[in-house]
Design goal:
By secondary structure, the protein is α/β, with parallel strands linked by helices. It has a single domain, classed as P-loop containing nucleotide triphosphate hydrolases (Rossmann fold, 3-Layer(aba) Sandwich). Helix 4 packs across helix 7. The protein has a five-stranded parallel β-sheet with strand order 2-3-1-4-5, sandwiched between helices. It binds adenosine-5'-triphosphate (ATP) and magnesium ion. The site of magnesium ion has 2 residues, from helix 1. InterPro entries: P-loop_NTPase (IPR027417), Thymidylate_kin-like_dom (IPR039430), Thymidylate_kinase (IPR018094). It holds the Pfam family Thymidylate_kin.
């Protein structure tokens, strides 16, 4: 085995319409400019099976989805994605840039659905072992603004069809995660114009690339 340094594992987080997909393009452009090799992926999803689980999770349905069933589907997709895609890329020295990861589970299934964070932490340990993102870029904006932005990008999925109270809980949970571990999180104000958000992201990336 070659002595390659592990790549950095960066996740982009935040509620509906905060600008994750838009800024992911900015991040990959930045990585291209630096000559850093990377893969870009997303959760839930990132492999054919995990993408099928994503469709099942996002699809609107008449049947109420049990929160624990939802949680287990998220982690089933994650186990597949981690082992097939993320770990091999990191082992090859590539950066992994992922649109949502386990913080989204703490925010949506924990904050939004009300599941105990301790249960999520157990599954996190089982599925991920000690693997955690090197840095979480958390885009933060009032969900009213985020949903207005998201409305312009297509029909609402099962999560986007929730009530405002759900999105407020999601935002609060994300912020609590960031406050609990400030050295791993970059809390980025996403209410400001895109160019300003991207200045903050560039500064954060510089710091991550410069760190060991
Ligand atoms: N800082 C910003 N100011 C104004 N508009 C923005 C900003 N950031 C993103 N947008 C716009 O908001 C819309 C939603 O952005 P985007 O799809 O990137 O969000 P997202 O976080 O990926 O959403 P989702 O959670 O639905 O995947 C897009 O039309 C995008 O151009
Ligand atoms: Mg998106």
């Amino acid at each position: 085995m070659q002595d390659l340094p592990q790549g950095k594992f960066i996740t982009l987080e935040g509620g509906e319409g905060v600008g994750k997909s838009t800024n992911l393009r900015f991040i990959t452009q930045w990585l291209d400019e630096q000559g850093i090799s990377y893969i870009q992926t997303r959760e839930p999803g990132g492999t054919p099976l995990a993408e099928q689980l994503r469709s099942l999770l996002l699809e609107k349905r008449d049947e109420r989805v049990d929160p624990t069933a939802e949680l287990l589907m998220v982690f089933a997709a994650r186990a597949q994605h981690l082992n097939q895609v993320i770990k091999p890329a990191l082992a090859q020295g590539k950066w992994v840039v992922c649109d949502r990861f386990t913080d989204a589970t703490y925010a949506y299934q924990g904050g939004g659905r009300g599941l105990d964070w301790a249960l999520i932490a157990q599954l996190e340990q089982t599925v991920q072992g000690d693997l955690r993102p090197d840095s979480v870029l958390l885009l933060d904006v009032d969900p009213e603004i985020g949903l207005q932005r998201a409305a312009s990008t297509g029909a609402a999925d099962r999560f986007e069809s929730e009530q405002m109270d759900f999105f407020r809980k999601v935002r609060a949970a994300y912020r609590k995660r960031a406050e609990g571990n400030p050295e791993c999180y970059q809390l980025i104000d996403a209410s400001v114009p895109l160019e300003e958000v991207q200045q903050s992201l560039a500064a954060a990336l510089q710091q991550i690339a410069g760190g060991s």
